[in-house]
Amino acid sequence: MAPTLSKPTLFLGLLAAQSLATPTPDKRSAAPSCVNNASNGQVYQGTNSQWNIECGTDYAGGDMGMSWVDSFEACIRDCDATTGCLDVAFVQPNACYKKNVLTPAVANAGVWTAKKAGASSSSSSLTCVNNAANGQSYTTSKGIFNIECGVDYAGGDLSSSTVASFEACINDCASTTGCIDVSYVNGACYKKSTLNSAVQVSSVWTAKLSTASTSSGPSCPASNGLSTTVSTGGAYNILCGTDYAGGDMKEVDTASFEACLEACDQNTGCVAVSYVAPSCYLKNVLNTPNAVSYVWGATKAIDVPTACPAAEGKTVTDESGNSYTIKCDYDSPGFDFYVVKADSFDACMDVCAGQQDCVGIAWVPDYNDCWPKYYMPDYAFFSDATLNYDVWLAIRDAEEPELEEPTEQEGWNTPEPEEPVVSWSDDEEE
Fold first, then answer.
1. Most-buried pick from 110, 211, 243, 250 (CB within 10 A)?
2. CATH of domain 129-209
3. What is the pLDDT of residue 255?
4. DSSP alpha helix (H) spans, 175-311
5. Diameter of the chain measured on Cα atoms
6. Cβ within 8 Å of residue 263, ≥6 positions away
């Protein structure tokens, strides 16, 4: 007898169920993208939070850091894993800006945003987006700061820091000794101890302590093309947006452009500076100038010494204001007061300025011999070609004698013409 199956209905049911079952596919959603607004309005599920995709929207400012990533999705995952991150702004191809403060949203076609679900903009946060806070005041422990959107007081930097918001930047300044102003640029906070002249820079959010005043020292672009003399005595020509690349002798940090010029004065051999606050580059060599918009340049105003043959026939002036005509490679022998040492042609002329009745000088550059003269006749100039050294002459310009006008009482001492005396003889009389 054939064996019987126990519970055949259950057995067949199990076989049928097994044959009808199909494996569930591992479905993964497409990577988020704002190309053609593909993911706009969708929700991305991160490991820790959900993220709302907003194409063409930016919450400007509030940056806590920036990183380079290989995709929008990687940018979202970076924020999802970062404590305090509320939002990302992704800019193709790989820039990821993480934010911990949400400012009011603005339209920006180049930005792909993912905002943490539940996060919202703070209506009380300070922002210069659309000039929202321009002209407002912000109170701190140090005093009241005035908000100026799109304005920068370039230079005068004390230090810088990375902060979460514009408010945090102002509070950082309030707690920093000597800080009177901040420039806030997308999370970067530049604290300043000196206020130079204001310039328009749309990306800068400024907060200035209400008691602070603008420095009267040189600044760019206000001083471009001008000459200035600093407290250490040096005179400088200001060249805004100009850099003499290279030729650096050292770099020092200074609180202002003026302090940079003073540092040049205090370092022997310095002939120019390039200032990119707070860095002051002192130069002892002037290379070819280049146009660099953010550099504040200055060259020391140095008197060019009088020298032959370039000075031939020219007129120069000594320290007392006397004028001299230069005659190169000629000597005027004799008629000397004395001979002294002078380390330059100009110094020899200054000797003449201090000598009564001096009419000129002969200077021998090979020996620094200076011969001030009391007489230099025109006929007594001889070429130095026969000598074994050069001689440079400076003939002091003679002043025209002044004629004194006679007074009305004195009149001119011109004798009156006498009438001729005519004698008549008796023979001539009729």
1. 243
2. 3.50.4.10
3. 73
4. 257-265
5. 216
6. 252, 254, 270, 273, 280, 282
Q: State CA 254 to chain mean position distance.
A: 12
Which residue is it, tokens 């180049």?
Answer: 110
Q: Where are the domains of the chain?
A: 35-116, 129-209, 227-300, 315-396
Instruction: Classify 1 as helix, strand or coil.
Output: coil
Give the helix/strand (H/E) hosting 167: helix 166-174
Question: Does the pLDDT at position 406 exceed 70?
Answer: no
> What top-level class would CATH report for the domain 315-396?
alpha beta
C-beta of residue 249 within 8 angstroms of C-beta of residue 281? no
Query: What does the pLDDT read at residue 14?
Result: 44
Neighbouring CB atoms inside 10 A of 429's CB total 6
Residues contacting 293, CB < 8 A, separation 6+: 241
Q: Give the amino acid at 98.
A: K
Q: Name, in order, each residue with C-beta under 8 angstroms of 22's C-beta and a sequence gap of 6 or more.
A: none
Query: How far is residue 181 CA from its own chain's centroid?
Result: 18
Instruction: Tell me what pLDDT residue 318 has.
Output: 76
- Residue 337: pLDDT band (50, 70, 90) is very high
Mind listing the pLDDT tens digit for each residue in 241-264?
999 888 899 999 887 788 899 999
Q: Kindly report the backbone phi and psi dihedral angles of residue 123, in degrees, each rounded to the nearest multiple of 5, phi listed first.
A: -70, -15
CATH of the domain spanning 227-300: 3.50.4.10
CATH class as words, domain 35-116: alpha beta
- Percent of the chain exceeding pLDDT 70 equals 82
Q: Which of 196-210, 285-299, 309-323, 408-422 has the lowest mean pLDDT?
A: 408-422
Cβ-contact 112, 90 below 8 angstroms: yes
- Whole-angstrom CA distances from 416 to 57, 331, 419 are 107, 51, 9
Same topology, domains 129-209 and 315-396? Answer is: yes
- Whether residue 316 contacts residue 304, with contact meaning beta carbons closer than 8 Å, is answered with no
